[in-house]
Specification:
The structure holds two protein chains of two kinds.
Chain A (H helix, E strand, L loop, with lengths): L7 E2 L2 H4 L3 E3 L2 E3 L5 E2 L1 E14 L2 E7 L4 E6 L4 H9 L4 E12 L2 E11 L2 H31 L4 H6 L10 H23 L1
Parallel strand pairs in A: 1-5
Antiparallel strand pairs in A: 2-3, 3-4, 5-6, 5-8, 6-7, 8-9
Chain B lengths: L2 H12 L4 H14 L4 H14 L8 E2 L10 E13 L4 E8 L4 E7 L11 E9 L5 E3 L4 E5 L8 E10 L4 E5 L11 E2 L3 E2 L4 E11 L4 E6 L1 H8 L3 H7 L6 H11 L3 E7 L2 E7 L9
Parallel strand pairs in B: 1-2, 4-6
Antiparallel strand pairs in B: 2-3, 2-5, 3-4, 5-6, 5-7, 8-12, 8-14, 9-12, 10-11, 12-13, 14-15
Classes of the chains: A alpha+beta, B alpha+beta.
């Protein structure tokens, strides 16, 4: 029985760093993702040719989600929400011609408190992934790599991600931590 | 585990009168010969047993199993049995009032365990990771009593509300949902059972679990009742009620206590089981 894909907590920088590897999208923090759970402030909604574009500021950066007639529930929900307000988005991520698109399955209004809970989770999950990938790379550098093994390892596709992308994710974590402090202090 | 604790533990099982000998033997094994505590303890216990000393074998609570013991006795209910291959004949999930544990049955085990029954497992081996191993040396005794098993807990966000959630009419005879007002088996129904139902997915980023909420749980979380739902719902479908459920639940964090995929308690939570910063 196939398991449902868990919705990864990700900041915009990581989502947009996604590159296709063997049919999956992998981020610069080494996470494979297809379904994401994001919260933030809905700041803008525009419509053109039946496609609704919404901008969400997740505390670290801007995420753009697109709803077409294929996401009817989310489309209606987004159009009816008065912004600016905090929202939660459960969305599917796909890559088309090098561009990342997020299409929501659900959108709903939430409170600032719920957004801070999400910040905590996202900081934790993102930090953990970054740590895992940097540890893995350090371990590799220290060992002698077996030539044969390297060819078989498909996730040697790491070279696809730039140091800059990873840096942006690190910065996002810092921004999120700062924001978390701000929001919990008030 | 320190030498002191080891001595305390063994003395507790063989009797205070043997304390001196226990202490001396354990000290020699652990300090002089650097034998790991776990091994030393089981060696000493075995020696006493061979000599005919009554060694207590108290049943432990699963939550108390901390890896210092090589084998334990527990009283637990069998929750689930999955068949294995080769040396691992079966994978069983057992639980008592304090915790759950995974237990592997080796191929030479003859007893048949039944799901839902409570047993006293005497002499189950404990692995390093806390899982249990039942061998042919394990004595199994079915118990008459029932145990109230501790539920599992999950904290996560509600990321989906299934399409068949909302205000549902069911046939009072067979319980099947009505289609177009008609039960597939019993046709026209006078007084259908009206219920608010919600099938949700709770997701913590690592795993996504489906739960079916009871009408009571729905009312507690959303303040929606069947009467309210009837006002909202339009003639043909349930979508309006479902949207109301989505508005109340989606993206919000809940803590679910559940057993066998059935939620026993669901509440909104502001605490996450993770440490940040």
């Amino acid at each position: 029985m196939k398991r449902r894909m868990p919705a990864k907590r990700m900041f915009a920088a990581e989502i947009y760093s996604g590159k296709p590897v063997n049919g999956k999208l992998v981020s610069a923090a080494g996470r494979a993702f297809k379904r994401v759970f994001v919260t933030g402030v809905l700041v803008d909604v525009t419509e053109r040719d039946g496609v609704v574009k919404a901008q969400i500021f997740d505390g670290t950066g801007k995420l753009t989600v697109f709803c077409s007639k294929y996401q009817p529930e989310a489309l209606v929900a987004i159009k009816s929400i008065e912004y600016p307000t905090y929202v939660a988005v459960v969305g599917r991520v796909s890559e088309v011609d090098g561009k990342i698109f997020v299409r929501p399955e659900f959108v709903n209004e939430i409170t600032a408190e719920e957004h801070t809970l999400w910040l905590k989770e996202a900081i934790f999950a993102t930090s953990k992934s970054l740590k895992r990938i940097t540890n893995a790379e350090q371990a590799e550098d220290e060992e002698e790599t077996d030539e044969v093994e390297t060819e078989n390892k498909e996730d040697k596709a790491e070279p696809q991600h730039t140091e800059e992308e990873r840096q942006r994710i690190l910065e996002a974590i810092e921004k999120a931590k700062a924001r978390l402090q701000e929001l919990t202090a008030s | 585990m320190s030498l002191e604790k080891a001595v305390e533990y063994v003395t507790g099982l063989v009797g205070v009168e043997h304390k001196e000998r226990v202490e001396k033997t354990l000290k020699t094994l652990i300090e002089d010969f650097r034998i790991p505590e776990k091994e030393a303890i089981s060696t000493v216990l075995r020696k006493f047993k061979e000599e005919g000393v009554q060694v207590k074998n108290p049943a432990k609570k699963i939550a108390e199993i901390d890896g210092t013991e090589t084998n334990v006795t527990i009283e637990a209910k069998v929750l689930n049995i999955a068949n294995g291959k080769g040396k691992a004949k079966a994978f069983v999930r057992v639980a008592d009032e304090t915790d759950h544990a995974r237990m592997v049955l080796t191929s030479n085990v003859e007893e048949e365990l039944e799901k839902g029954k409570v047993y006293r497992f005497k002499n189950v081996m404990v692995n390093e990771d806390g899982s249990l191993l039942m061998t042919k040396n394990t004595a199994v005794k079915e118990l008459e009593k029932d145990i109230e098993v501790k539920p599992l807990t999950m904290t996560g966000a509600i990321v989906s509300i299934a399409k068949n959630s909302g205000y549902i009419l069911r046939c009072p005879e067979c319980g099947m949902p009505l289609k177009g007002g008609i039960c597939p088996e019993h046709n026209l129904v006078d007084s259908p059972i009206e219920r608010l139902e919600a099938r949700i997915v709770v997701d913590n980023g690592r795993v996504a679990r489906r739960f079916t909420l009871t009408p009571e749980q729905i009312e507690a979380l959303t303040e929606l009742t069947v009467e309210e739902a009837k006002k909202i719902k339009n003639k043909f479908d349930n979508e309006a009620v479902r949207q109301a459920l989505i508005k109340a639940l989606l993206g919000r964090y809940v803590k679910v206590e559940y057993l066998d995929r059935i939620p026993q308690a669901v509440e909104f939570t502001t605490e996450l089981p993770i440490e940040v910063m």
